[in-house]
Amino acid sequence: MPFLDKIQLWAEERPHDTAVVVGSSRLTWAGLRDAAAALPGQSTNTTVLAEPNSSQFIERYAAAVAGERRCAVLDPQWPAPMIEDVTARIRAAAVPATGKDELVDGDPSSTFLIGLTSGTTSIPKAFTRSRRSWQVSFEASIEFFGLSQDDRTLAPGPLSASLNLYALSECLYAGAAFHTLPTFDVGDAHAAISHDGITRLVLAPTILRLLSERGLAGDVDASGIRSIICAGSKLDARTLEAARRWAPHAAIYEYYGASELSFVSGTRLAAGQPLDASGTGIGSPFPGVDLGILDDAGRSLADGEHGNISVRSGMVSNGYLWGDDGQALRCLDGWFTVGDQGYLDRGTLHILGRRSDMIITSGKNVYPHEVELALASVPGIELAVAAGAPDDIRGQKVIAGVVPAYGAVTATQLRSGLDGLLARDKRPLQYFLLSELPMTDRGKVSRKVLLDWIKNHDPRAQPLA
């Protein structure tokens, strides 16, 4: 059961307590239960939601997974043709709805969520999750993050993003108040933290840096925040330093996971605890997860050996509705992997990145993720993107684009800044100053776009001497 039985329980035990806040709109537990229960059932077993954050969205989401129904949440910022295409594909797989419209959870093994994840084509892959997989995930994350009913969680991003949709669902399951915003705005997020008694943040590192730095500049009090959960990319030293100053009492969590695998590993940094910002380590196995590094034949590899990051857990998705190319989610003798590469070192998982991103230069394997983490730790660098460019002598050469945090930056500064952070044979041979990050039309950082800019002499990527 994901969370509907829990909503019924909290509505009986604490009917007037706050369940959800979206901007100025507030729902109590009884109000959420009654509003969701009053929504008419759909003619098919599948509801597609593609809309901005609102209390009505949350009501519809709860109603859409009643019984053994299922829901797909799409990003409303996608291009209209993509939304139409994905919606048509999902509806083609739907069947007529059966059973009553009561706000209760269906069979734990049944599908309740259709998730979308990026693929090699313009159409995202669609995978499914069972009710049981999220219940297991809730129990594990509540334990790991220490979520309690006294917490007030703010996830300021769009609920169409899996990080925020999961945070909402986790809070509904745990009986903890969940706060979000109709659209992301730094001032509105600060106002919620100041006036709503927020104790817990769930957000990407880039948003944490923005809130922390502007919060410090604007003297926004964040001393009541007890925990900060980050995912989506690895924390960098500048973000951590700003967050420590702004929210001095907060434990900071970062974790690694994949849409199809759920949680894999995580780490907790107590208030004041330092971060290995240039390293690739991202904690120990998540509660309930068996973690191993396997080769392509499914053989277990020893500490320090690179291979497929693989898990056994009850949180893994069921598979795909479409988009399964045989490589996206593989099962190796009971172990599941999405092809991310890494290694274990005394129980700590180190992430190297996707094999498809690997650069082979002069016979050596270099993962862009390692290069990007090291460059992001160089003073004065905001963000970095690394890639492999064709090279007649080496096969490929490592190149990197950087977005400076402030002032000017030179190639000499970058080269000297990598001393002690990155092996010489992994260092970029050429640097480019980026006026913006190379992004796909779906808003994801793209190494291919960076290479296209360089090949076409795009003014957004200027060579650094």
Report on this model:
Strand 4, helix 4 and strand 5 form a beta-alpha-beta unit. The N and C termini lie far apart (58 Å). The chain has helices spanning 4-13, 29-38, 55-64, 80-92, 131-145, 162-174, 186-195, 205-217, 237-246, 368-376, 411-417, 447-455; strands at residues 18-22, 25-28, 46-49, 70-73, 111-117, 125-130, 152-154, 177-180, 200-203, 227-230, 251-258, 262-269, 284-285, 290-294, 307-312, 319-322, 330-332, 335-337, 340-345, 348-354, 359-361, 364-366, 381-391, 395-404, 430-434, 461-463. 28% of the residues lie in helices and 28% in strands. The chain contains twelve helices and 26 strands. Strands 2-1-8-7-9-10-11-12-13 form a nine-stranded mixed beta sheet, with helices on both faces. Strands 3-4-5-6-16 form a five-stranded mixed beta sheet, sandwiched between helices. A four-stranded antiparallel beta sheet has the order 14-15-19-20. It has two domains: 4-351, ANL, N-terminal domain (Rossmann fold, 3-Layer(aba) Sandwich), CATH 3.40.50.12780; 358-463, GMP Synthetase, Chain A, domain 3, CATH 3.30.300. The chain has 465 residues and is of the alpha/beta class.
